[in-house]
Amino acid sequence: MKKVLITGGAGFIGSNLSLQLLKRGYSVTVLDNLHPQIHGEDAENNSPLYTSIKGKINFIKGNVVSKSDWQQAIQDQQIIIHLAAETGTGQSMYEIERYTNVNINGTSILVDLLTNTNHTIEKVIVASSRAIYGEGKYMSSVTQQFFYPKERKEEDLLKGFFEPRNPTEEQEFLTAIATDENSSIQPNSIYGLTKYYQEQALMICCKSLNIPCVAFRYQNVYGPGQSLSNPYTGILSIFSTRIKAHKPINIFEDGKESRDFVYIDDVITATLLGIEKSEANFLSFNVGTGVSTSVLEVAETLMKNYNITIPLDISGQFRKGDIRHNFADLTLIKERLQFTPSVDFKTGIQHFCNWVNKQTLQNDNYENSLAELRSKGLMK
After folding, report:
1. Is 50 a catalytic residue?
2. CB environment 270-282: b (16+ within 10 A), e (fewer)
């Protein structure tokens, strides 16, 4: 029976992964601080994510920025799944010390312990993110060249020109294509930068120690159980809370910006393959569907499923640190791990909405999160 430590294991991905690992006969320890932003107040009694694993796993309430918590957690473990991180592109642009402390310093402590102490760790899995790419991969229809656009110019965004331009043919707007793992790494946000540090620090360290390491660059993960109270991340949850409260939604830019939404069950399947297959060792994999879905389509699909119509304010506003498009090229994970996503967006969002309909309506703090961005000059 393998012993597995999951940091952030009471979160959305972590709790689902914990339950699947238990079914497979693993012994699971979770290190999590039960942050109120994700779990709400009185998380130990009222968080659905935590209560789903409570009493089934060995739980350590602690923090990855604490060396002593790490030392306690990794004792006698064989596999580490490092999910713990502060998440949210917009919030990371002004909560810089917090994101850096948890994501970078927390991971540095793990790297240091792996390098300088006696332990029994045989494999490490780290949650990376599509945010490390910044803008995804694009193509010019004029020259048939590939491009990895830098941050879009504010003067273009203010004029309503939201698509990235061809740097060699300024009048052409580029077309997004699937982003593969060899694409340029150029994060547009502090969050993306810290996730890339997590991935690469562990990959470098583990290679030097000959400890197999696998990184998963998750796209936008969604599904039943995700936090409905976090106004900083999770567009499906944020929009659902607004729709159920019959409040309008501010759609940034022109609503045509798009993401790759991957269902939680598929994320767990991919992660389990990374744990159990040696073919995954020392590689970084995209985890998504390979399908691009616009923000406007998300809002309209949610309203249809809830049978509620609210105003959609396509405001033209934009947040610094946001990208226009990104969806995953899955060639590598299909070839190496035989992973193919099984839940399409239409089916997954139906499952998600059916679950939301059974939940208590959460307090809506979305406007407060936007006000914070405006006060920092990060939203135009």
Report:
1. no
2. bbbbbbeeeebee
